[in-house]
Amino acid sequence: RLQQLFNHSTFVQQQEEYKRENIQWKFVDYGADLQPTINLITNSVLPILDDQCFLPRATDATFV
Length: 64
What we know:
By secondary structure, this protein is mainly alpha-helical. Helix content is 67%, strand content 0%.
């Protein structure tokens, strides 16, 4: 959710400004729905990272 807001606020608005100022650029579609990626990070990666934080000998190798 936050990533989608950031993408819209930064990239989409910047491209709109380019268009208003007649600046030539290659259009990039930032409108992709990033919800599946956000769900993966929120529901899978972050809980595993939280679990690793409680282990006394956790390392980056045990996280993977």
